Amino acid sequence: MKDIFIGVDFGGTRIKLGLVNEGKILADSNIEAASALTFEERLVDIAVQMRRMLAGGKYRLTGIGFAFPGIVNFYSGQILSRYVKYPGAENVDLNAWADKHFGVPMVVENDARAALIGEWQHGAGRGSDNLVLVTFGTGVGTGVLIHGKPLRGKNFVGGNLGGHSTINFEGNICNCGNIGCVESESSTWALTKLARESAEYPTSKLAEVEVIDFKSLFETAEKGDPLAVKLKDRCLKVWSLCVINLVHAYDPDKVIFGGGIMKSSHIILPYIKEMLDKHAWINASDVELEVAAEPEYAGILGVYELLKQKTH
């Protein structure tokens, strides 16, 4: 019977689960985020899915880890911030839930910080102890590792709010309440609004797209659509300035990039390198830019590593 760990990564549209044994993913599954349900209701479905994955009696569960898209007290295991996709998560005692339903210890960490730990131990960050991770997607997530220790800070926001740093002081109010955030200027949830506010929108091919995401934006820009090209360039510039700010703040060996949009890394990374050379205090050659090696499982592998650290 193998000792097994289950990691649960709460994404914007899907919740991923993975069985981990000695740092290897043995099996995975996923369910919808289903934001119409409360967090407690989602946990019921997660427990059912976990039991399915453990069925057959060949595994012995030793721990559970949650990678959650919000501010988290790693030490107490408490989710501190509200998140619209998982209503009520801040009111749930996850330690008690794991003990009641599975009789095992639990760890919870911010999803970007967990992904950073996963990449550090199992992916693109191996061999470096000073790292920044940035994920572009529904939002913009960041995590920071300094001298081999994840940055958390007094209120557990350390390194996590790169996506909510102001990039345009005359910009719109972000959904977080701040002004002109990286996220409100260049994330999936902002794209449709940015497109529809443009005078070019009615004649743009983007007006025919049901959901404007980065895939449709880059594809439409590739065909020469003027508005798509303008929005793509805007996102590239905002992302580059975000990375420059992170490099200035944390001076890492390496910046690791995650998110589905990195399928276009051949466009994104050269642009960021050029911007670093033009506008940063260091040259692009002084910091490595790499695509995440474990984009699907970094968060799960990260909470696996963190539970080992917490229980030993």
From TrEMBL:
<dbReference type="Pfam" id="PF00480">
    <property type="entry name" value="ROK"/>
</dbReference>
<dbReference type="InterPro" id="IPR043129">
    <property type="entry name" value="ATPase_NBD"/>
</dbReference>
<protein>
    <submittedName>
        <fullName>ROK family protein</fullName>
    </submittedName>
</protein>
<comment type="similarity">
    <text>Belongs to the ROK (NagC/XylR) family.</text>
</comment>
<dbReference type="InterPro" id="IPR000600">
    <property type="entry name" value="ROK"/>
</dbReference>
